[in-house]
TrEMBL record:
It holds the Pfam family ATPgraspMvdD. It comes from the Bacteria. This is MvdC family ATP-grasp ribosomal peptide maturase. Residues 2-113 form the MvdD-like pre-ATP grasp domain. SUPFAM superfamilies: Glutathione synthetase ATP-binding domain-like.
């Protein structure tokens, strides 16, 4: 069982490895940011076929857990003008090498994950499946963003589509934030970096749902204490929550449409009890739910990796 992670991930990967080993499977962890300077992966393609090699020996892999494909660490001595090219080439090479494992069971295949990360696609599919979504504008046009702000009486949040920091707590990068009237002049910067704007959704609870093969492991935060972006502002503790059957069924259809067996889904429960879909991160963090609530997410992933398709 091949586990693809990164050097700064101490919890989730170890939990999945332990769950696999307790079931009699061998778990091999590869930290993808170690490629190519430390992690010696290579390909052999000849009359014997196509093989993925680790330290010169062919890898025999039954299943792959794709937790993170992390940007490669490039030696600081590489001149700055060539570092970006070296990182791009290393990342491309790693994805190509992993394609030499087509017979393995993947959770989830690289190409499926990359397609599923498309946030407009997620929202389009969610809406088609009758999940509630907030009115959304994705734009690099300052005038369009200002008009959206006015149309929703200033009740608007702004966020990026990609995470700048991945951890159980967060705190780095750029948080989701409420847009204020005094922020409107700064919208000129959208010309350099498009953003997502959504109508603010009142919160009774904010949910993080760890999804594994149609099973939902849910943690909830008190909406009054979790702030605009719980990763940066929450003072609330995680509490258990059970999804209504109708919401669970719609999420199952959404995850099937995206082709995902795992993911971290974010939703808001409004004061009147409505469930509003925000997004799904195929590699989203769930360690705090297992740690704080005792949810058996790693065990579920181990079972999914060991099960035949």
């Amino acid at each position: 069982m091949l586990l693809l992670s990164h050097r700064q991930e101490p919890f989730c990967t170890a939990r999945v490895a332990g769950a696999l080993e307790s079931r009699g499977a061998r778990a091999l962890r590869l930290d993808t940011d170690d490629f190519p300077e430390v992690l010696q992966l290579s390909a052999a393609l000849d009359e014997r076929g196509a093989r993925l090699l680790l330290d010169g020996e062919a890898l025999q892999v039954d299943a792959v857990w794709l937790w993170r494909l992390w940007p490669p660490r490039i030696d600081a001595r590489v001149e700055s003008g060539r570092r970006q090219a070296a990182q791009r080439e290393a990342a491309t090479c790693l994805r190509g090498l992993l394609d030499l494992l087509p017979a393995a069971r993947w959770i989830d295949p690289i190409e499926v994950v990359r397609a599923a990360e498309n946030k407009p696609r997620q929202l389009r599919l969610a809406r088609a499946l009758e999940l509630a979504i907030p009115p959304t504008l994705i734009t690099a046009d300052p005038a369009a963003a200002a008009a959206f702000f006015a149309a929703h009486d200033g009740q608007v949040i702004a966020k990026l589509q990609t995470a700048l920091d991945l951890s159980m707590r967060g705190g780095g990068g750029l948080p989701t934030r409420r847009l204020r009237p005094e922020d409107l002049p700064a919208l000129a910067g959208l010309r350099h970096c498009p953003m997502v704007f959504q109508r603010w959704v009142p919160k009774a609870l904010e949910l993080r749902i760890a999804w594994v093969d149609k099973r939902a492991f849910v943690g909830a935060l008190d909406g009054a204490q979790c702030g605009v972006d719980w990763r940066h502002e929450s003072t609330a503790g995680w509490q258990s929550y059970e999804l209504p059957a109708e919401v669970h069924a719609k999420l199952a259809r959404l995850m099937a449409a995206l082709g995902l067996r795992q993911g971290a889904i974010d939703m808001i429960v409004t004061p009147d009890g409505a469930h509003v879909f925000l997004e799904v991160n195929p590699h989203g963090e769930w360690g705090m739910l297992e740690r704080d609530l005792g949810l058996p997410i790693a065990a579920a992933l181990a079972d999914a990796l060991l099960a035949s398709e």
